[in-house]
């Protein structure tokens, strides 16, 4: 009862903040299912008290299943432009925190709802960050339950799919709250819509990147690594990393690529005495953005910030630099000592 009252108070607090104002939710980077679902659920919570409601994303739709989710569920979203930020607008972000949006002081968030490890939130008027939860969709499910709000089938389907993807079907970063939300949402979800979205996951060109990864793989003890070179869509690393971590004996999978002016590194771990997010932060936070959870993480490095440490501006040099950085923490990937630095072998007479 106390938990339900707290949830109701949070919903009322958000609505009171938005009352009579334009409302904007900004999704950091490329929209993923948890961010899409959470922004949609938040929009439905406040649309009756706001003068207008908008969901805007900073990146691109690089994964076909995410675009399919938006199209099938008819979720109203648009590309972010700076003219959306008006003095009277109440601005929110979900499945992210202000520290994720580096490099522009014009962004000020009034409302923050997230499940990632807590970082500097600035001075929001409302913040609900729960690092023990496997998805932000779980938080919004609890909001609807606490406030006694009827959940439409589209909202339930969006939240269910967001929770399902972020927790890997309840196999990673799962809390009791996630299990309860999964059970609640499953009974209200359109399973045909979910199936259609899931069948949109892999474009044919994904096979080419699997071939590159398999040809270039470096598997040493429990660690699998592959560098895909320069590619247009860095999310291909995600597909391959999810495959590599399923290999027998592998407890770390690291996939990397160069895309435009960034180097993207995707981590997967088995989560046993490991934390992919902490590793990503320790290795790469100084070069861009990095973070994640126990079993999954991502780093996006600004090419300009690592060029001074490369012997030349090539994919070979980037791969060598990554292996050196990764090898400082993942010892099996540490570069082998050059023969010239090794003691000479003595052949028996």
CATH architect. name of the largest domain: Alpha-Beta Complex
Main β-sheet description: 6 strands, parallel
H/E element order:
HEHEHEEEEHHHHHEEHEEHEEHH
CATH topology of the largest domain: inorganic pyrophosphatase (n-terminal core)
Shape: globular
* Number of DSSP E strands: 12
Topology:
Elements: H1 2-18, E1 22-27, H2 33-46, E2 52-57, H3 64-73, E3 78-79, E4 90-94, E5 111-114, E6 126-129, H4 136-147, H5 153-166, H6 176-186, H7 191-198, H8 206-216, E7 218-220, E8 223-230, H9 236-244, E9 252-259, E10 262-269, H10 276-284, E11 288-292, E12 296-302, H11 303-306, H12 315-327
Helix pairs in contact: 1-4, 2-4, 2-5, 3-7, 4-5, 4-6, 5-6, 8-9
Write a structural description:
The chain is an alpha/beta fold. It has helices at residues 2-18, 33-46, 64-73, 136-147, 153-166, 176-186, 191-198, 206-216, 236-244, 276-284, 303-306, 315-327; strands spanning 22-27, 52-57, 78-79, 90-94, 111-114, 126-129, 218-220, 223-230, 252-259, 262-269, 288-292, 296-302. The longest helix has 17 residues, at 2-18. The protein starts with a helix and ends in a 22-residue tail after the last helix. Mean pLDDT is 93; it is low at 339-349.
